[in-house]
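For this section, I looked closely at a protein sequence along with its fold in token form, which I now present.
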Amino acid sequence: MEATIAEINNWYVGWSNYFEMTYYPAQLKKIEAHIRRRLRSRLVDQQKSRRNLFRKLVKRGVPRDQAASAVFSHKGRWALSNTRAVNKAYSPGWFMGEMGLVIRSDQQLPHWFDVQQWIRLA
């Protein structure tokens, strides 16, 4: 996983530097959210069984009933990657802090519109 995140960071930093001229950082937020969901999907798939995924979610602080209802719901890995339990266990803060995923949408560049301006323009 660390090698994958290092490769994503290398690609994403270069790509986001090229598109830094955008006025709408919400575009970057959508891309970052999709990257995190793909990584969550991969984390779900790496577990040998649903029981191991359940244990891992509980260990990461998800309540037992919430983890059980998500894990044992017969959903596939892509659907599981967007459940509340998996999002809580593997939050954006976890990806940035422990895994070192680069987030560029948090920058406040002077030419970027605020989200409220983006809503008014659309």
